[in-house]
Design brief:
The protein is α+β, with helices and mostly antiparallel strands. The protein folds into 3 domains: about 100 residues, no CATH class; about 160 residues, no CATH class; about 110 residues, no CATH class. It is built from 16 helices and 9 strands. The strands form 4 sheets. Strands 5-8-9 form a 3-stranded antiparallel β-sheet. The chain has a two-stranded antiparallel sheet with strand order 1-2. A two-stranded antiparallel sheet has the order 3-4.
Length: about 400
């Protein structure tokens, strides 16, 4: 594993502390902050970002357990947008999903990015409470007027949320949703809230803790879905994985694998456990991972018969249960995989054939999309096939030696 400056941060048998990884990323953060900012401001933002992420890691053990390079990558995404995670501005945050961290935009961050394009004359959101007067109509002409009550807001329930924009060229649009409609939308589309209900943890759901903020973000996303957006704005919004699905969706974002991953991420928001949602099979806590088979150097063979790898049976490649919490592979795991293939006597050509075969079996484009369990299963299958070939070879040799013996 390396940090953003290219320095090795992980050696065999030794992990570098998270604080050192984050501190090493300071120079890189300065380079990705938006151009035009004063150098002193950039330094202050870089220091603040590192301090706040270190503080968040100390307070959130799940975030601290994420791979350091994913935390640094998420921090870099925030810096690219000119934002600081966990700040009082509440423009963005970094959330843990299993062993990976991911940046997520808040509604204030979305408004900031739209405003920075220079295309929007006005973009804002509003909260309508009991006692307020809201008038609006749509058609060839449209208008929205919100008259606030003079009564204290904290005593009045929220009834509507609206979001609107005006473009520099004169275009405008707005979206209004009642809280009832927003809750129906939440119940139908929010996997995080669905998982909370399944686990009877509705009180811990972000929709319960910050219902107004989440409602504002829902309405704002609905507005921006069809709003004019420059290519740069789309690229910026797409840094938020979930927002990309709504505002700039692509076919590759809705494959079965992506949908399963998305469900597990929303489930992790509620339970803190990166696993399949509760409607699938329950986790067998007694299940243990099989230890990796050891191959002695004396057992190294000439792997000429590995050419028939596609004949390995599907039973040998049966995937580990998706209900089982499993980590995604790191570069270190992939390097260890190739080292084991070398130890088994496979040259580079055969190693590449094994690599292509594994990607085909698991229907992935890159080995980085595999889990540790899947990579281990693949290695076990290769070892089993080589051992089988070795036994067959020894048997053939024994028969030849027997036939060559002179009769007594």
């Amino acid at each position: 594993m390396v940090n953003v400056n290219g320095d090795n941060l992980k050696t065999s048998g030794q992990l570098v502390p998270m604080e050192k990884v984050l501190m090493a990323s300071g120079t890189k953060l300065l380079n990705v902050l938006p151009a035009g900012l004063d150098e002193d401001i950039k330094k202050d933002m870089s220091k603040a970002a590192i301090f706040l992420i270190m503080k968040a890691c100390r307070e959130n053990q799940k975030l601290a357990a994420c791979l350091p390079d994913t935390i640094v990558s998420s921090l870099m995404d925030c810096a690219t947008l000119g934002m600081i995670p966990f700040s009082k501005m509440n423009e963005c945050t970094i959330l843990p999903y299993g062993n990976k961290a991911s940046m997520q935009l808040m509604y204030r961050g979305i408004i900031k990015l739209c405003t920075n394009t220079g295309e929007y004359k006005n973009i804002r959101v509003g909260v309508v409470r009991e006692g307020d007067k809201l008038e609006y109509y749509k058609g060839l002409n449209q208008d929205l007027r919100h008259y606030e009550s003079k009564e204290p807001a904290h005593n009045r329930k929220v009834t509507h949320i609206y979001a609107l924009y005006e473009l520099i060229n004169g275009g405008s649009d707005f979206v209004v949703m009642t809280m009832e409609d927003i809750r129906v939308h939440r119940d139908e589309y929010s996997k995080e809230y669905k998982a909370a209900k399944k686990y009877n943890k509705v009180e811990s759901s972000i929709w319960t803790k910050e219902e107004v903020s989440m409602s504002i973000k829902t309405v704002l996303i609905k507005l921006m879905k069809y709003a004019p957006k420059s290519d740069k704005l789309v690229q910026q919004l797409a840094l938020d994985r979930d927002l990309k699905r709504e505002i700039a969706p692509e076919r590759k974002d809705f494959t079965e694998e992506k949908e399963a991953e998305f469900a597990k991420q929303r489930n992790a928001d509620v339970t803190g456990v990166y696993e399949d949602p509760p409607e699938d099979k329950k986790i067998d806590k007694k299940e243990e991972k099989k230890p990796e088979k050891e191959i002695k150097k004396t057992d190294k063979i000439n792997a000429t018969k590995v050419d028939d790898l596609p004949d390995i049976t599907d039973e040998m490649m049966e995937e580990e249960s998706l209900n089982k919490v499993d980590l995604m592979v790191s570069q270190t795991d992939i390097s260890a995989f190739y080292a084991k293939l070398t130890e088994l006597g496979l040259d580079k050509t055969k190693q590449e054939k094994v690599s292509d075969w594994v990607k085909t079996k698991y229907k992935v484009k890159s080995k980085k999309e595999l889990t540790v369990g899947q990579l281990r299963k693949a290695l076990d299958a290769v070892i089993a096939k080589i051992e089988k070939n070795n036994l067959e070879k020894e048997g053939e040799k024994a028969i030849e030696e027997f036939n060559e013996q002179e009769p007594k």
